[in-house]
TrEMBL record:
Alphabetic keyword roster: Glycoprotein, Membrane, Transmembrane, Transmembrane helix
Name of the protein described by the UniProt record: Adipocyte plasma membrane-associated protein
One of the Pfam families matching this protein, by short name: Str_synth
The family this protein is said to belong to: Belongs to the strictosidine synthase family.
Chief subcellular location: membrane
Length: 385
């Protein structure tokens, strides 16, 4: 009798599934899809072994100023004073543990996703030679901010077309020691920061730009990068590294020397999606991963990369907020040598202490960890790892 009932169950189940699937497919075909994804070829992610072996080093970090900050993405310091930009559009100074808002580029309200374009979203932040701050605001452009007076000066506006393209998502920047040149990324000329998931999934390409503070000229240095994100000048200032988030790799563009104007691959097929990149005291680079590509394990991003039709289906039916919930929480920071080999890696599987890390900024023996979503900054003592 049991085989008969299991057969009945199977037939009933399949009939029910088919009767639900057909109308669902019909509806799905009719629904608009916000993105037009292209197939992306990624190699099989590197095995998490050797220096990439999972550990729980990031759990040794302490959370600072919890619930007093909203998504402190990038961190810079002048002496022991820290600066960061937050999701509520503020540029913040932290001195002796006290938090103070020094400037705003946009204006309130800053409650919802819809408010973001007017509220502004300061992302990359750097200190220039005269101890002024250079800030990349995703919606407004490049600014110089006086940390003493809070005065803001626009350098490059997103309203200005650059070689016929509009800047829709100004992301990170790196400044020469003399303050003359600023290299910055525009992550997309199509999507805004609030739609970053569409950008990751669609795989459209954009570029690396250069702003000359003397001539006030903007030049496009590289195009065809898929989600260009964090940027960092080399210690000798002969090249700029640019993280290509969707492709899980870092490209190198030469700004001086014999190779000037040329580009090559610095690190390929990384164990996660690189966000920001900063110098490490050893002459290498700290790279924060906004998501990980587990191997062994299942990488959703890799699974979807060659299947644009599944991506279309997902975004026809689900909101970006819902899709984000399927991305495993896993925090990973790697240190690269000056040649791009892995020196060490710090992990927090499941993001217990450190969740959603966007940047690792080294200062005075500590690694300050910025986050595009968490309400705090984490600090890791490098002597203890």
């Amino acid at each position: 009798g049991s085989t008969y009932s299991s057969k009945v169950f199977r037939v009933t189940f399949l009939t029910l599934a088919a009767s639900l699937t057909v109308p669902l497919l019909g509806v799905t075909v009719l629904l608009d899809c916000p993105i037009d994804p292209q197939p992306i070829s990624l190699k099989e992610p590197p095995l998490l072994t050797g220096v990439l072996e999972p550990n729980i080093e990031l759990r040794k970090a302490e959370r600072l100023w919890e619930n007093q900050l909203v998504g402190p993405e990038s961190i810079a310091n002048i002496g022991d004073v820290l600066f960061t930009g937050t999701a509520d559009g503020k540029i913040i100074k932290i001195e002796d543990g006290e938090i103070q808002t020094i400037a705003r580029i946009g204006h309130g309200p800053c409650e919802t996703r819809e408010d973001e374009p007017t509220c502004g979203r300061p992302l990359g932040i750097r200190v220039g030679p005269n101890n002024t701050l250079f800030v990349a605001d995703a919606y407004y452009g490049l600014y110089e901010v006086n940390p003493g007076t809070g005065e803001t000066k626009m350098l490059v506006s997103t309203k200005t077309l650059i070689e016929g393209q509009k800047l829709s998502f100004v992301n990170d920047l790196t400044v020469t020691r003399d303050g003359r040149k600023i290299y910055f990324t525009d992550s997309s000329s199509k999507w805004q920061r609030r739609d970053y998931l569409f950008l990751v999934m669609e795989g459209t390409d954009d570029g690396l730009l250069e702003y000359d503070t003397v001539t006030k000229e903007v030049k496009v240095l590289m195009v065809g990068l898929r989600f260009p994100n964090g940027v960092q000048l080399s210690p000798a200032e002969d090249f700029v590294l640019v993280q290509e988030t969707t492709m899980a790799r870092i490209r190198r563009y030469y700004v001086s020397g014999l190779m000037k104007g040329g580009a090559d691959m610095f690190v390929e097929n990384m164990p996660g999606l690189p966000d920001n990149i900063r110098l490490s005291s050893s002459g290498g680079y700290w790279v924060a991963m906004s998501a990980v590509r587990p191997n062994p394990g299942f990488s959703l991003l890799d699974f979807l990369s060659e299947k644009p039709w599944i991506k279309r289906m997902i975004f026809k039916l689900l909101s970006q907020e819902t899709v984000t919930k399927f991305v495993p929480k896993y925090s990973l920071v790697v240190e690269l040598s000056e040649t791009g080999s892995y020196r060490r890696s710090f992990h927090d599987p499941n993001g217990v202490t450190v969740a959603y890390v966007s940047e690792a900024h080294e200062h005075n023996g500590y690694l300050y960890l910025g986050s595009f979503r968490s309400p705090f900054i984490c600090r890791l003592n490098l002597q203890h790892v």
